Amino acid sequence: MNKKLPKQVLIVLLCCLLVRLTTQAKSFDPAAQTNGQLPAAAVQQSPQELQQLVAPIALYPDALVAQILAASTYPAEIVEADRWMQGHSDLKGKKLAEEVDKQPWDPSVKALTQFSSVLENMDKNLSWTSSLGDAYANQQQEVTDAVQAMRQQARKAGQLNSNEQEKVTNQGNTIIIEPANPDVVYVPAYDPWLAYGVPMVAYPGWVPVPRIFFAGPAISFGSGFGIGYFGGFGWAWHHWGCDWHGHQVIYNHNTYISHSLTIINRGRGNQGRGNFNHSGGSFNHGNAFRGSTAGGSHSGSTFHAPPGTRSGAFSGFDHGGNVRGFSTRGRSSLGGGFHGGGSHGGGGRHR
Length: 351
Description:
About 30% of the residues lie in helices and about 10% in strands. It has nine helices and ten strands.
């Protein structure tokens, strides 16, 4: 017996079918697909590769390491912040902190504006920055372990000891690095490929940046960065730290959560501990490469990473999309960049 379904029933069935199809479509991340294929798992880097990746920052104070790891998941904002700083070099102290606070950047990127040489390094070595962010997103435990491994190596080589600039202590097998004076932060200047006792292979295309690079195997300190003017902001120095046993960055006494749309969390199983936004997608998925002019306005241009790059958003390329050469290694510069208050002289002292 043929009976036609009531019109209302047909409408309900069509609505249910539409909802199901929509749900299925949303279960895939179109930005992460390549030519209609599901994205492959992230390439897992070896302990040696990760040690090479963290060598330039492993000897920094814990809170600065935390800021860098977090900010490395935002390479586009790193570039924007560094260009903004270059265009606002007249701002100092409290005024600088107030203007930085108005920017739409992640708290970790804002925090790094106090350490202009560190921010400049992350901009000029954008391939390394992107790879570091990608590694931290997908191999969080291994990255933090690599930092500790490099510190242990530097300690054995006699390069990592307490001094006038920083306090180095042990908690079991964990090495903690803190400023000797809680109000002044010194960023060690060293050659990351020579400072650990045994020479390391330099990261491809690495460009030494003045004020944080010091030629030879020795480690030096320039001027200190006072943190007083930045202390009243929620993204400032005292809000950051590393939980070495939990293998995570701490922000405001909680696990730091990255919402970057640039770095994709493709970790294995529970790797990453949910600390990264899974709705990210690729670099061009809702996240333009925002350049800034001297006035701080966005250019709105979009950066397209060349095909065939590594998993990092900019791996192997500078911010102009050009392959970098390693032609400037060997320069050394001490000095100190300081925007937070009066400069505290370090005099370029060696360990």
